[in-house]
Amino acid sequence: QSALTQPASVSGSPGQSITISCTGTSSDVGGYNYVSWYQQHPGKAPKLMIYEVSNRPSGVSNRFSGSKSGNTASLTISGLQAEDEADYYCSSYTSSSTVIFGGGTKVTVL
Amino acid sequence: QVTLKESGPALVKPTQTLTLTCTFSGFSLSTSGMRVSWIRQPPGKALEWLARIDWDDDKFYSTSLKTRLTISKDTSKNQVVLTMTNMDPVDTATYYCARTYSSGWSGMDVWGQGTTVTVSS
User: In Å, what is the CA distance from A34 to each residue of A63, A66, B25, B69?
Assistant: First the structure.
């Protein structure tokens, strides 16, 4: 099964909003509301930012929001800050009872 | 406080079997809805989910790797063990364990720091 499709990089200036897309199929992203998003700084473990498409864990800034339309999920970061510069990965449950990740998106704060 | 920590050999030879242990604290894997997964990340590459074990001993494996993987738990020791057979240099990666506490397939909310495994002769 191929990885979910994410743009390799997205950039924005401080204060701006950016959106990262995550495209799958009806057998994963489109078929279930089990899309998660993870933030990973260099040399660190991933951190859960969004679960079940649009829910934020306690302690995650409300500048992070998630959504889904059809086979594509999205992560939006509003009010971009320097600390948001990191790699972001989406993941989804699949019809094979497995989890699939996206290829990752490097977010750069200009 | 929930923590997980991975342990295992830093170096394995090709064809050998890798055994990794995830030792956790702050929760019990006998609690309904508790689940522990293994995920790996080759240097400079994306995350790859490997396997998951649930509180009720249900087990799930990556489709592409399931013939090489075995996941098990020791609830009394608060440990989850992953074995991967027939190791190859392409299996060189940082291996993470992570917890999910929910129904179904929600996000992995707490991750270990990862352990780096190099496969080389």
Answer: 21, 12, 26, 24
